[in-house]
Design brief:
The protein contains nine helices and no strands. It has 307 residues and is mostly helical. The relative contact order is 0.13.
């Protein structure tokens, strides 16, 4: 295999990091701009310990957003380098004319630029708006939407007819994945599982409502994307693209089962004041399978669509 092709392991690994970081950026933005303000006004933080745990969780979520954005930027730059190598090959990939052509004269390059500007705005927001408010929420929402639209414009979404439908389906799919697996991963990395039971229960209850809606959107948009890309029930054993879609579906099923167990078993126990040690295992297992799904996604986006 050509080491500079878009199907090379290096390129697949770079896309995997980019997708994982993207979901973490979505999840951290949703948690900081939506979930934490909701908890501050709705959760019963009666003791000093609970309020201290809430502040610590918020501070750690900012750290997660910062580091996930940094990881995304590294993958963003690496994707440009690998795309240039795939387009021109060495050493022409580093020529000024080639760099200019890739960045400004291709749809992929313009989508790449849009993503970079969007993440830069998300990282700058805590310094731009000291007090979260309507302006802050609008800026964060707009930057997040621009980031996901940029991701959609740089992939298979624009190759279907009509392209606008493909882009909308892709945006909904990524947003839903970020609101489900991205938000769960961010909360776990932020230390929610070590927080007092009251904070855990309130945060997970809010997350559960978001995740239920996100899962529905994820499944519907996934079916729409597969259909738009030419996948049919009778062709799942045919082209490589269709087989990868099937593998992705098979990985999604146990993830949904774990999410259902957390919703139907864990949340009621937490609400009744019981600690559920097994939740830590199930949550991280759900995230681990999600990484497997992202690995398939990082492969499928460079696979030829069914004819």
């Amino acid at each position: 295999m050509d080491p500079f092709s878009v199907e090379s392991p290096w390129y697949v690994g770079t896309r995997l990091v980019a997708y994982a970081a993207l979901l973490a950026v979505i999840g951290s933005t949703v948690s900081l701009r939506g979930l934490m303000p909701w908890l501050r006004t709705r959760a019963r933080l009666d003791t000093a310990e609970q309020r201290r745990a809430f502040r610590l969780l918020r501070r750690r979520l900012y750290d997660v957003q910062r580091y996930s954005s940094l990881a995304w930027f590294v993958a963003w730059m690496a994707r440009w380098a690998m795309q240039s190598l795939a387009f021109f090959g060495p050493p022409a990939a580093w020529d000024f004319d080639g760099a200019w052509t890739l960045t400004w004269d291709t749809a992929w390059g313009r989508a790449w630029l849009l993503q970079g500007v969007s993440v830069a705005m998300l990282m700058a927001l805590p310094n731009m708006t000291r007090r979260p408010g309507t302006r802050d929420q609008l800026l964060a929402s707009g930057a997040l939407l621009a980031l996901v639209v940029g991701q959609a414009l740089g992939g298979h979404a624009v190759t279907v007819a009509p392209p606008a439908v493909g882009v909308v389906a892709h945006v909904l799919h990524l947003m839903a994945a970020g609101h489900w697996l991205g938000l769960l991963a961010v909360l776990c990395m932020g230390g929610l599982l070590r927080a007092p039971l009251t904070v855990q229960t309130s945060a997970l209850s809010a997350f559960s409502r978001v995740a239920q809606l996100a899962v529905g959107v994820l499944l519907l948009s996934g079916v729409a994307m597969a259909w738009l890309h030419g996948v049919r029930p009778q062709s799942v054993w045919g082209p490589s693209y269709s087989r990868l879609v099937l593998l992705k579906v098979l990985l999604v099923m146990p993830t949904l089962a774990l999410g259902g167990w957390n919703w139907r078993v864990v949340l009621p126990r937490l609400a009744s004041g019981q600690s559920v040690p097994a939740f830590r295992i199930s949550a991280w297992l759900e995230i681990g399978i999600g990484i497997g799904i992202l690995m398939v996604t990082a492969t499928i986006v460079a696979t030829e669509l069914p004819s």
